[in-house]
Amino acid sequence: MRVKVLGCSGGIGGILRTTSFLIDHDILVDAGTGVGDLLFEQLVEIDHIFITHSHLDHITSIPLLADTVFGMRNKPVHVYATAETWEIIKSHIFNWKIWPDFTVIPDKINPFLVWKEIRIGETVNLGGRKFTPVPANHVVPAIGFHLEGHSSSMVFTGDTTTCDALWDAVNRIDNLKYLVIETAFSNAELELAKMSKHLCPSLLIEELAKLKHNPRPRTYITHLKPGEGEIIMREIESDAYEFNARPLYNGHIFEL
Ligand SMILES: [Zn+2]
Ligand SMILES: [Zn+2]
Question: How far is it, in rounded angstroms, from Cα 152 to Cα 122?
């Protein structure tokens, strides 16, 4: 199972892209602006999209993808989201005002987009590639994902602030090789991080201390706020050097 980072920034501009991961050639985990870098032929091959939450930086490419490849495919794209998240996306995006409702196009019997409900702790197995929602704590209903291939696992937190239930789930994973965790803000923005339910370095350090794995998984930081990436990483490196956390980059490839 190959995981390629298409986007891992908190914003856009220049080379920055918002959150998305391409799994092999046919699955997306989140669908931020990074999806737009795929070739048309690659977009046509996407069969499954897993969504952490409804915020625009994680879903913006779903409506555009649907419109782009609709007509080139003879099977639906499956969108995996919790009931709460799907309700938000359905009523606020696919409502014929922001975008046409691709769950009834071309008709209700054979729609182009099909929602698949997922729940925390329940694994979706797609040909041996396993996706299990894990808890997250954000301003809207949100989850992270435990991704498991044949040889190892990764946890992607999605957007979250302090979340003990997440670490309860993560500490039960015995083949955890990689942890991709958000740190959206710098320490100067602690209050903003708390209000928007993200992490800043001081909160990140408290969270990483809850991880019981020995050896630790390789830890990558995602969702850095544009213009603050260097300061956030400096704060993490100076106060949390023992976690050896590195910034996640576009194009990074993980084999699981
Ligand atoms: Zn968010
Ligand atoms: Zn986000």
Answer: 18
